[in-house]
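Quick start: read one record
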Amino acid sequence: MSHKLLRKELIGKKVFTEAGTELGVLEDIVIDCTSGLIRYILIRFSGKISQNHRTDEQGRVICAVDEIRATNGKVVVI
């Protein structure tokens, strides 16, 4: 049986890389309407935002991801 989460259960959770580096807080998830796959997530970054990071008009970092996992009250990007 697959596990499912609602978007509202993920918003506000801390986001980490697989290596355990904290990126910030998940603010939103953008889904591709055609494929149904996650296109990218929007993170309120906890560190300094470099010029390499793309941001939206609200200053959130746009993070393309292949997959996200929710474990132990946090979100892990893959």
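Strands lie at 14-17, 22-31, 38-45, 61-64, 68-71, 74-77.
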